[in-house]
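Students often ask why we bother encoding 3D structure as a string. The short answer is that it lets us treat folding as translation between two languages. Here is a chain of 247 residues written in the first language.
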Amino acid sequence: MKIKTILISQPEPSNENSPYSKLKEKHKLTIDFRPFIHVEGLSSKQVRTQKIDFSNFDSIILNSRNSVDHFFRIAKEMRYKVPDSTKYFCQSEAVAFYLQKYVVYRKRKIYVGKNHLSDLDLIFKKFNNERFLLPSSDILKNEIPAYLDKLGINWKRVQLYKTVISDLSDLRDVYYDILVFFSPSGIDSLFKNFPDFKQNNTKIAVYGNTTEEAAKNANLRIDIKAPTKDYPSMSMAIEKYINSLKE
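And here it is in the second language, the structure alphabet:
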């Protein structure tokens, strides 16, 4: 079976030189991008019901760009001026860089992990007397609260946004050779939109262990997996699969 069409269940990369662009050109593919899920912010009224007072916290834990956006959105709606002395603990450089949208970077205390909060282990322990706030969505990986609890720091979670299944009804009669998923929510969205979905010859690509588990639980046949030792990115895993069909 020759691969001609791929649907990536994420927003299209803003970078014109993304790996998918190169993959598309090299193998003459049609690659479409469509988020299977999207984020919706909670209202300030909904946040207030959680009885979390932002002024009680010295430090903010940020594990995504969404958490950055919605923390400052709600702070503005609540007319809460975030103190200049606030410390920010960012999971990755990408999150820390995005934080510059809201704060003057050089004037703030910002601590940056390589890609995991546990990269900041020593920093958290240094400030173990601080009060930490974790802005999050309704979906939060279990390992994050487990890690923070293990540290023994004083922290609270506040839900500021939620993950919502996107309407994909316009894709009902559109077929792709490969469907690519990056989260269990994407798998959930597929079957919520198309309860009668039959995989047949469609290839399923999954990124990460939790996505793989969700696909298996949905009785999907998994043809492409990432990351692996040899293929750390999804684009590399897809290319490897396409090349294997030519052998």
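Translate back mentally: The chain has a mean pLDDT of 94. Keep this in mind for the problem set.
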